[in-house]
Write a structure and sequence with these properties.
This protein is mostly beta strands and 115 residues long. It is 0% helix and 53% strand. It has no helices and eleven strands. Strands 2, 4, 5, 6, 9, 10 and 11 form a seven-stranded mixed beta sheet that branches. It has a four-stranded antiparallel beta sheet with strand order 1-3-8-7, with no helix packed on it. Strand 7 and strand 8 form a beta hairpin. The model has no long low-confidence stretch (mean pLDDT 97).
Amino acid sequence: QVQLVESGGGLVQPGGSLRLSCAASGIIFRVYAMGWYRQAPGKQRELVAAIASSSNLNYADSVKGRCTISRDNAKNTVYLQMNSLKPEDTAVYYCNVQTLGGQYWGRGTQVTVSS
């Protein structure tokens, strides 16, 4: 059974930082690309960042230069370091993996950027 469990969200002031984590189980983690998505109220879910099994990286234009995605294959965990956070970064952040058996999502972690 594939499980993705996000953590690390919270309330942060504009300009602050957060580090999100996603622990994966039930998959051979090292062979799959992993992604972070977010969904703000009233908006569609959007890709924030993705990291391939080769560690190639992809970022949304809105977070380039402010966010860094990384993975630790020994810990089956993918991270999203977010710096210089803005109110428009407020959203629920979801971890995602696309496997041969289907697409899986975590339950999400809330990130709120507000003074």
